């Protein structure tokens, strides 16, 4: 039971046991440190005693079962800021935050007014779709953005507020564990129209502004950075000094102040290289070298340099993407960077629409579409699986395996979100996060890399909610192998297997195995 919240690659105990010496000032202790093979947990992670099937969306935005995340210290610590309130068996989320005590809803409208967007809509006619919220707390900002047709990747570390992302995921809000430390965030360049920090307690000036330069890498041309913090408005000497230094740094990065009002300042990233060419020689931060790949992110160190636009880049505001929701199915300009034609893109979209409809036909006797909220596509390719779910009330964490990481930019250009990951390691999330895992050819791939299929099954079980579903589409030999473990994994509440119709994405014979995980208690783990 003491491992019921285990995150193998973010396990503070492992750092002590392996006698690692992370730099605490640089937040290295919040970055990934995975156990070697001989120290992995070859067991199923039990739910807490009394665990209940999570409250369904949209009610879950505002309340969760206390027993599922029995941590209430945030409710006391942030009681004056309306983060969360304990009421009997439930924890309620009024929608407050450190800088928006009166609710994220009003705060979002205020940001839209500051930017003078039409009708006070932050989505700006569908041109603002992807948002990065750093130091997000329990992700109420991201929760209320959803009603505006904006999806936020809300990130925070497993720090002193250690369960903030766990609460966000239990609520059904797109979020993940992450930290601005020493390594690049696992997202491609030019992925977000807006970055947001509300009292996120980040030292933006450290190491020659390397963390602001990471935001610069991630923002699209003309993208915004909304900063709500005392450094933006307070007049005491320390905050004024920090605020002036940030202003000076961002000016050298060629960002401009769009608007400053009350407790918030909003900057914008340039849309071309022209400002960089006008800087004095030797101005810091420098431009990155031409051999730096701004889309390389897995275990890549951050760089204290500006990623300039290449001549091939679409430098117009927003990277030349059409507004949401049209961008979901429109072939984005960056397809040419990965050697995929518009015709191949549209064919992929059509195939996945058919495949997903076949999945529903296979499952509809046991579950309603409205049951699902948190979904993961473990091998997302061009994002066709996630796009096919557009008419359902789900969000999809699209995962690009490391060898396919260049394709993640296409997913962001479609207005979806995702991350890069190596499936030979544990994922950076809490146990019992996802209602549905979709694994297309992922077992075949990791077998080629010499990684353990059983290790992956155990990891999938860790991040799958009780009563959740797994869809495995792979070679018949792989599916037959997995069958041997279904009972031991307690994935046998419901099982269905079919041979799907072949299509342009099929690589030889395939089988589709769909299983459902049982709800079992912690006491069962001793049997």
Automatic annotation (TrEMBL):
Top-level taxon of the source organism: Eukaryota
Protein's recorded name: Uncharacterized protein
Biological source species: Manihot esculenta
């Amino acid at each position: 039971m003491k491992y019921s919240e285990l995150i193998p690659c973010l396990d503070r105990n492992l750092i002590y046991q392996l006698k690692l010496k992370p730099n605490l000032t640089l937040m290295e202790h919040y970055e990934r440190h995975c156990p070697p093979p001989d120290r992995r947990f070859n067991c199923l992670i039990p739910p807490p005693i009394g665990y209940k099937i999570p409250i369904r969306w949209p009610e879950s935005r505002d309340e969760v079962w206390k027993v599922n995340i029995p941590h209430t210290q945030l409710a006391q610590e942030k009681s004056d800021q309306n983060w969360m309130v304990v009421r009997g068996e439930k924890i309620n989320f009024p929608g407050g935050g450190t800088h928006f005590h009166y609710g994220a809803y009003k705060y979002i409208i205020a940001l839209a007014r500051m930017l003078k967007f039409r009708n006070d809509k932050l989505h700006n006619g569908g041109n603002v779709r992807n948002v990065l919220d750093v130091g997000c707390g329990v992700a109420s900002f991201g929760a209320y953005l959803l009603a505006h047709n904006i999806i936020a990747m809300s990130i925070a570390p497993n720090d002193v507020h250690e369960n903030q992302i766990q609460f966000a995921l239990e609520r059904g809000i797109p979020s993940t564990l992450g930290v601005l430390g020493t390594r690049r965030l696992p997202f491609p360049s030019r992925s977000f129209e807006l970055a947001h920090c509300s009292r996120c307690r980040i030292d933006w000036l450290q190491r020659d502004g390397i963390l602001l330069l990471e935001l610069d890498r991630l923002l699209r041309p003309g993208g915004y950075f909304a900063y709500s913090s005392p450094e933006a408005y307070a007049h005491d000497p320390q905050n004024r000094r920090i605020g002036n230094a940030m202003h000076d740094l961002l000016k050298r990065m060629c960002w401009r102040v769009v608007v400053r009002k009350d407790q918030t300042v909003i900057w914008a990233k340039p849309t071309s290289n022209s400002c960089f060419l006008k800087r004095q020689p030797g101005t810091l931060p420098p431009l990155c070298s031409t051999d730096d790949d701004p889309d390389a992110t897995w275990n890549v160190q951050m760089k204290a340099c500006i990623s300039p636009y290449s001549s091939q880049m679409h430098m117009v505001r927003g990277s030349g993407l059409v507004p949401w929701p049209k961008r979901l199915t429109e072939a984005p300009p960056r397809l040419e960077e990965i050697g995929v034609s518009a015709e191949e893109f549209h064919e992929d979209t059509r195939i996945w629409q058919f495949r997903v409809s076949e999945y529903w036909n296979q499952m509809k006797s046991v579950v309603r579409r409205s049951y699902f909220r948190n979904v993961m596509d473990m091998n997302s390719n061009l994002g066709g699986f996630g796009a096919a779910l557009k008419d359902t009330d789900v969000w999809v964490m699209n995962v690009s395996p490391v060898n396919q990481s260049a394709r993640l930019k296409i997913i962001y250009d479609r207005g979806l979100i995702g991350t890069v990951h190596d499936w030979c390691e544990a994922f950076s999330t809490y146990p019992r996060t996802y209602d549905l895992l979709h694994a297309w050819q992922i077992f075949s791939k990791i077998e080629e890399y010499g990684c353990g299929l059983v290790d992956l099954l155990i990891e999938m079980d860790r991040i799958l909610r009780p009563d959740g579903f797994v869809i495995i589409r792979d070679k018949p030999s792989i599916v037959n192998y997995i069958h041997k473990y279904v009972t031991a994994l307690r994935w046998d509440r419901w099982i269905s297997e079919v041979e799907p119709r072949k299509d342009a994405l099929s690589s030889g014979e395939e089988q589709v195995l769909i299983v459902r995980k049982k709800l079992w208690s912690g006491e069962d783990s001793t049997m």
